[in-house]
Specification:
The chain is α+β, with helices and mostly antiparallel strands and 235 residues long. It has two domains: 167 residues, GAF domain (Beta-Lactamase, 2-Layer Sandwich), CATH 3.30.450.40; 66 residues, Arc Repressor Mutant, subunit A, CATH 1.10.10. Strand 1 and strand 2 form a beta hairpin. This is ANTAR domain-containing protein. It holds the Pfam family ANTAR. It comes from Labedella phragmitis.
């Protein structure tokens, strides 16, 4: 890929993100688009986002079951570069998970799931952190500094869109929006299980099936997931 092509691709991503940030936009869909965009644009193996809600951090978007497994372990053990990125408001890069010290549980589970390097980026605006974007790689530190900066810029755009000026001033509104996203993710996970069981397929394929149906019908991802769980529709 030429440099010009990469610049054009990133520009299109920023335009797409900006177009998504309209009134009543679906936060879960926005963040899912963000992780999938990072995976394809920067050619990383997987990506995931932890989001802060009323009860602390929770997983809200991921591109694979492997990355989901690692992030859930992070939440259970309360250690990992993504937590450091969230709490400290800075990017944390681990170019080789087989080397170095700290986060023993995270390193072990990440390696078991095929990841060898990780970049954790904060989702933060001014003094307010709302989560962390983690990029997983199966090769050693293939991301350039420019790619990391670009990924951080994408996370920043999404963060600004979620918070916006009015919710920055109204902290309670922020918490409600983030909690809604986390509650929605529970419904989506339940729907993935239903679809996976119905079609005897993996969770990743089940999620792609649900998203495709939501887009084809022009319905919100959460709305479709609720209907699947209630057995109102079959996808």
């Amino acid at each position: 890929m030429t440099e010009k092509t990469r610049e054009q691709q990133l520009l299109q991503v920023f335009v797409t993100l900006a177009d998504t940030l309209v009134a009543d936009f679906d936060i879960v869909e926005l963040l899912q688009m963000l992780v999938e965009t990072c995976q394809s644009t920067f050619d990383v193996t997987a990506a995931a986002i932890l989001l802060s809600g009323e009860d602390g951090l929770d997983l809200v978007a991921s591109t694979s079951e492997e990355s989901r497994t690692v992030e859930l372990m992070v939440l259970a053990s309360e250690e990992g570069p993504c937590l450091d990125a969230f709490h400290e408001g800075r990017a944390v890069t681990v170019p080789d998970l087989r080397e170095g010290e700290g986060w023993a549980g995270f390193r072990a589970v990440a390696l078991e799931n095929g990841f060898s390097a990780v970049h954790a980026l904060p989702m933060r605006l001014r003094e307010q952190s709302i989560g962390a974007l983690t990029l997983f790689e199966s090769r050693e530190d293939v991301l350039s500094a420019d790619d990391v900066d670009a990924a951080q810029a994408l996370a920043d755009v999404a963060t600004i869109g979620i918070l916006q000026e009015r919710v920055i001033r109204e902290n309670q509104t922020v918490r409600r929006q983030l909690q809604t996203a986390l509650d929605s993710r529970i419904i989506i996970e339940q729907a993935k299980g239903v679809v996976a069981y119905t079609h005897d397929e993996g969770m990743d394929e089940a999620f792609r099936r649900i998203r495709a149906y939501a887009r084809e019908t022009g319905r919100a991802l959460t709305e479709v997931s609720r209907a699947i769980v209630a057995r109102e529709i079959i996808v």
